Amino acid sequence: MKEISNIKAFGVIGDPIAQSLSPDIHNFWIKKSNISAYYNKFHLQTKCATEDIKALQRFDVQGLNVTMPYKEYAIRAAVNVSETAEKIGVANTLKSTPLGWYADNTDAVGFLNALLSCLENKDLTGKAILLIGAGGAARAVAYILSKQNVDLTIVNRTVSKVDDLITELAPAAKSNSLSDLTNDMDAADIVVNATSLKAGLVDSIEFPDGNGRLFFDLSYGKAPEEILRKASQSGWQTEDGLRMLVEQAALSHELWHGETPDVEAAYQMCQEKIR
Ligand code: NAP
User: Taking the complete model, does pTM exceed 0.90, yes or no?
Assistant: First the structure.
């Protein structure tokens, strides 16, 4: 089946999806650049995710962002996979090609760009970085940080998952359990929280004095408010995941439309929308 208008279809799939800011971000750039396209959100509830994602390409959808819980299925639905997505094991961006989907992961570089924008000198060289978490997002963060000249430690509730992550993606990193978190945080220049922020974890974190060091939480909106407040009260510079969201979206936009969009304008628009 072919689309009947010349407006190209893009979108994001996930479950849940109602709260996604991706349509706001992408349609903002599409409008600004006068591109003949529209970006929608698709609430995909399925037990056959791989087949359903493949089918969307047959319906002439030109590009997709993929969020939880379908990032692993996006790789399986693709005929070609970027080296980054292949290594990390999950994809968040699909581009239609004549052969089928091409899968990429823009979370990794999107995170790096967002992190660098928090640093005055934009330089990570020699920094001690503590990464909390070993899920899909943490894998993207570990992968890209392992390519920088940093001293990386990764901690997670399930230690075996950190060990696997280190073996596969960041062989020079050190691992630890969550039991010594305050000391691990104290030894770090930058702390990155890539856990899904369940209440138990937020309550249990005892922040050491931050002295202006950076605490970067990957989640955004209401979810990280409490943990960012705790960090800030202990003297940490804080950043949520909104800038990362916009940075990873910018890389998807570049892949689909071949142009670099205005990240700062979209970031301001999102901030106004969620406040
Ligand atoms: P995930 O794959 O489900 O991983 C969840 C992580 O949280 C695991 O490390 C898990 O530990 C840990 N965790 C969950 N509950 C915990 C608890 N009670 N105590 C301690 N640890 C706990 O999720 P994900 O896809 O990596 O996403 C993680 C976060 O990143 C989410 O908040 C997501 O919204 C955010 N994110 C943001 C962006 C962005 O653009 N800003 C992009 C992607 C993801 P175990 O391994 O022990 O279960």
Answer: yes
